[in-house]
Amino acid sequence: MTTQASSGGTRIVVGVDGSAQSGLALRWAMRISAATNASIDAVIAWHFPMSYGLGYVSDQWDPETDATNCLKDAVDQAFGSEPPTGLRLLVRQGLPAKVLLDESNGATMLIVGSRGHGGFVGMLLGSVSATCAEHATCPVLVVHGDRPVR
Asked: Which has the closest alpha carbon to 43: 108, 98, 80?
């Protein structure tokens, strides 16, 4: 899967963690981008929880690769073989809320799921939606899992 560059115009940032609600957030972004001609930045963030500094972490584990695979899988599940034009896949290291707030600077909208669970250890989205809604400099759409978006 290739990523496309942002058009430089309006931009929607979507937080992805591999949960069903982040898949809904991607589909909402597609609908809104079609109506507004905005590009979509699908963003996944990963970090090492503090407990990992004291314990054993396998040198076989590559969190960036896991995050990339999780993001690609989420995009494939949300869009199938026809991702929206202007979609960029962004993998960032850091706390999810901070990464999403940073990425959403200058964006038209930030879309996140109301709850996430993460696809692997190190991608925690517990209170991310609340933090983003409180601190973002753009409008925030918090997607609740009421019904699928087509």
From this structure: 98
- Per DSSP bridges, beta strands 11-15 and 109-113 are parallel
Q: What is the CATH number of domain 11-39+63-126+136-143?
A: 3.40.50.620
User: For residue 135, what are its two tokens?
Assistant: 């601190």
Residue type for 78, please?
Answer: A
Residue type, 37: N
pLDDT at residue 67 is higher than 50: yes
9: pLDDT strictly greater than 80: no
Q: What is the pTM of this model?
A: 0.82
User: Which residues have C-beta within 8 Å of that of residue 23, sequence separation ≥ 6?
Assistant: 74, 77, 78
| Residues 25-51 pLDDT 10s | 999 999 999 999 999 999 999 987 665
Mapped onto helix, strand or coil, the DSSP state of residue 143 is: strand
Q: Give me the phi and psi of 119, to 5 degrees please.
A: -90, -15
Compute how many other C-beta atoms are within 10 angstroms of the C-beta atom of residue 78. Answer: 22
